Every structure is written in C-alpha cells, then in structure tokens.
Amino acid sequence: xxxxxxxxxxxxxxxxxxxxxxxxxxxxxxxxxxxxxxxxxxxxxxxxxxxxxxxxxxxxxxxxxxxxxxxxxxxxxxxxxxxxxxxxxxxxxxxxxxxxxxxxxxxxxxxxxxxxxxxxxxxxxxxxxxxxxxxxxxxxxxxxxxxxxxxxxxxxxxxxxxxxxxxxxxxxxxxxxxxxxxxxxxxxxxxxxxxxxxxxxxxxxxxxxxxxxxxxxxxxxxxxxxxxxxxxxxxxxxxxxxxxxxxxxxxxxxxxxxxxxxxxxxxxxxxxxxxxxxxxxxxxxxxxxxxxxxxxxxxxxxxxxxxxxxxxxxxxxxxxxxxxxxxxxxxxxxxxxxxxxxxxxxxxxxxxxxxxxxxxxxxxxxxxxxxxxxxxxxxxxxxxxxxxxxxxxxxxxxxxxxxxxxxx
Length: 408
Prior knowledge:
The protein is an alpha+beta fold. Helices cover 73% and strands 6% of the residues. Strands 2-1-3-4 form a 4-stranded antiparallel sheet.
C-alpha cells in the first residue's frame, strides 16, 4: 500500500525543493529524487517518524566512532596520491565505513560532490564529524591545488592529536579509578561495618579513645545521612558542570586547571602542544594567518590560551607582531614566545611551531610516565592511611581493655 512522504532536497544550484510523493517505501522516494538529480535532505512519512537522507530512523545525524576520521583521512590521501578520482575514492570509503553514522555522513558527502559541490563545502555540512580546522585545511588545499598533500598533513595532525589524547587518558585513568576505589571502600566501612561495633564497645565498659569516638561519630552521621551526602555531591557536580559551561565558569575552570599541583604543569604542556600543532598545521597548509588564529582560538581547549590568541589576533589586525601579546601572557613560556618571534621574522613560523609541538609532546610523554610511577605509591599510601585509620579506631578499645585486664 502506497504511503505519502514529505521530502526536502537540493537541486544542482543548491536551491531547496520540497514536496510530497506517494510511494511504497522511503527507498523508492530516494531513488526517484536521485533520478531527478536532486540530493535528498529530509524524507519522512506524513504520519510517521522521521527519516533523513535515505537512512533508517535513528540515523538522522552524522556521527563517527573513535579513530574513523583519522583512518578515512589517511586512506583518502593515499588514494588521491595514487591517482584515483575524488568521487570514486569517496564512494569506496563510504562502502568501507563501519559505523552507520559515518556511512551516512560519507554518502551525503558523495551526493553533494556528485551535485557539483566542493569537498570542503560537503564536509562542512557535518560539523559533528569534520571540525572547523579540518574543513579549513581542505578549503586551503582546494585553493592551492594540493589537496592530497593537505590530506597527508591533516592525517598526521589527527594522528598526533589522538596519540596525545591517549597519553593523557593513560595518565588520568589510574588516579581516577584509584580515587573511586578509596572512596568506595572507605564509605562501605564507615556506613556498613563501623556502626555495628557500637554494641561491642558498650559491652566493654571502657573509655573510648578519641580516634574511636571521632570515627564512630562520622560513621553514624554517614549512615543516617547518606542520602543527603550523596545527593549533595550530585547536586554540587550538576551545579559545577552548569557553571563551567558559562564563559566566566570556563575561564575560572581553565585557570585553576593550569595551576593545580602535580597535574597543572602537565595540562599546561598539553594545551601548549595542541596550540602549536594546530597553528603550525594551518599555517603550513596555506590558511591565512588571521583565519588560522581564529580556528586555533576555538580549538585550543583552554579559555586562558584562547584569550591570549584572540589578543594576538587583534594585534596582527592592527599591524603589530604576534610575539608581543604572547610574551605578556604568563601562560606562554619565554622559549615559546621567542621561537614565535624568530619564526615570524624569518618566515618559518610553521616550522618553529611544529618544533614547539614536538618538544611538548615529548615533555608530556615523559611527564606521564613519571606521574604514573609517582601516583601509584601515593594512592596506595592514601588508601592505607584511610583504611588503616578506620581499622585502628575499631581495635583501639579492644587493646585498651586488654591493657586494663593485664594490669588488673
């Protein structure tokens, strides 16, 4: 039985065409639209659920799994370097894509390329998959006629960024897991075990040591008010997350992040590495300096660094140098600002920025290994202190009773 579908599609000139059509299935609608050289944008039953661009319900938005964009970029670069036409290479990669969301995304890109759109414009329609820096570099490659070279640089950039994220994740996983274990074990002992010793202590008829009294008070408070404690923690987390999403909250959060003991210097080096690598890749790919700085500011991942980059961008707009705003900032070390100044004067800014990125990548890798080896004994000591303190508080009255009996 035929069903009525509403559709929206783009013609070859980019104009949106809308209408209704009766068909047995959504695929028949899509086939008819493509036969009429229209690119489907939205197709849905008049009385049913939403379907987008020929995909099943639930796949209306582009998405990608971890690592898919990096692999796609490397493969596309290799195919173009081997002389395979752009459209054919994209069709092959769309067929090979594993996740439904990324398959849908590439099929949309293929349809737009068939309709005469540039690759950068087609990719720009999927910001959840292809970032601003990705689209800007592709656009620069199209202008310069070196799209295969740009894709190679982009693949190297994405792979380096993924490696850096992996290093940070490995550095943070152990302390976070250990912290949750310590909190979980301590909470279990204080709420489930310690209060059960109260009748035992009362039967001993001895004066309880201060540590035992203190521990018992906390244990009963936690047992009687556990819902308030955990509820308060959840509310606090929600409020803090909402505050961090504001401009002022983001700035405060990022400022504290760069200054916290132990992890602050690591986060600072990560931020500097990301800044230098992104800036270097964009400049090397031919993106204009002001446009590159705007993208760097948006992708820096740290509001403090973003504000410095914005100041430097305004300085360049007024005809001043890059180095001065960076040198005034306390975030950028003297080594970085001097290398930026040398690169600006010598015309080798991209090369020196790349050296800065490589330097900080090595620093991050070294510091991650050092932190991992340092955090393990610290967390063991913290766990031993907390659990040992609870156990000692429980056994002190027994020891005191034993002393009284031996003395008697």
